[in-house]
Amino acid sequence: MNRIISPSLLAADFGNLQREIEMLNESEADWFHLDIMDGVFVPNISFGMPVISAINKLARKPLDVHLMIVDPDRYISTFRKVGADILTVHYEACTHLHRTIQAIKAEGMKAGVALNPHTPVSFLEDIIHDLDLVLIMSVNPGFGGQSFIENTYNKVRDLRAMINNSRSTAIIEVDGGVNDKNIAKLEDAGVNAFVAGSFVFKSDDPAKTIANLKTVK
Ligand code: DX5
Ligand code: ZN
Fold first, then answer.
1. Quick check: 121 and 159 in contact, CB under 8 A?
2. Annotated catalytic, 30?
3. Which ligand 1 atom sits nearest the alpha carbon of residue 148?
4. Which residues of the chain have pLDDT under 50?
5. Residues 127, 47: Cα–Cα separation, whole Å
6. In this predicted structure, what is the pLDDT of residue 212?
7. How far is CA 133 from CA 13, 14, 23, 31, 159, in A?
8. Count of structural domains within the chain
9. Which own/partner pairs from 168-171 qualify as long-range (CB within 8 Å, at least 24 positions apart)?
């Protein structure tokens, strides 16, 4: 399977959002990763519906929406309306995760579950066959630019084994501190999709950085 690159707009220049989106449209990026933070589930607030709508009008690739919010059930249909294609909720934020996943799919979106660094992948055993995507957090959610947590490789290997031993077709995505030094090792461990924020947007030539991430060994 081809590496999926999902640049996180959290690290983009918000004063020139249209230019950043057009750059991603022209680049080898596969998805747009949008980080939604509510200041409750994580100690930061990012952006919400009006900004997602504006991005959706310009973006020509799927919107990969990562919800770092409590009680995501309240907004599932709204996220569909503003353009989300993949909707990922946090395991730690959902009391009735099975119901939440069904609701996301009923809206016609792909359903993902994100795990914080401390949450074992084994907690997904009884729902893995219902998921389109599992997002392994390789930093504590809330901020871009943090360093990669090495235990992520073990989690990815465990999750890959769980998926291969089940009827699941879930994609494995990793988010946080991804760069040209760890991407190949993550892929070897079983990752399909890679979120990269600062490594892409703080580089001199983001489009070239994305192209390099697609193939670097
Ligand atoms: C962190 C977000 C990430 C973040 C990644 O809470 O979920 O998507 O933007 O940024 P980098 O690649 O800079 O770690
Ligand atoms: Zn994210």
1. yes
2. no
3. 14
4. none
5. 29
6. 98
7. 28, 28, 26, 14, 11
8. 1
9. 168/128, 168/129, 168/131, 169/132, 170/128, 170/131, 170/132, 170/133, 170/134, 171/4, 171/132, 171/133, 171/134
Structure tokens at 133: 């995507």
The percent of residues above 90 in pLDDT, for the chain, comes to 99
User: How far apart are the CA of 57 and the centre of ligand 1, in A?
Assistant: 23
Q: Two tokens at 14?
A: 């918000």
Number of H helices, E strands in the chain: 8, 8
Give the pLDDT of residue 1.
76
| Separation CA 148–CA 21 (nearest Å) | 26
Ligand 1: does its nearest atom lie under 6 Å from the Cβ of 33?
Answer: yes
- Identify whether 71 is a catalytic site residue: no
- Closest to 33 in 3D by CA, of 69, 84, 73: 84
Give me the residues near ligand 2 (ion), CB cutoff below 5 Å. Answer: 35, 66, 175
Give me the CATH number covering residue 192: 3.20.20.70
Report pTM.
0.98
Question: Range of 24's domain?
Answer: 4-215
Indicate if ligand 1 lies below 6 Å from the C-beta of 159: no
Which of the ligands is closest to the CA of residue 197? Answer: 1
Q: Is 208 within 8 Å of 19 (Cβ atoms)? A: no
Ligand 1 lined by 3 (C-beta under 6 Å): no
Query: Tell me, what's the pLDDT at 167?
Result: 85
Ligand 1 atom nearest 8 alpha carbon: 9
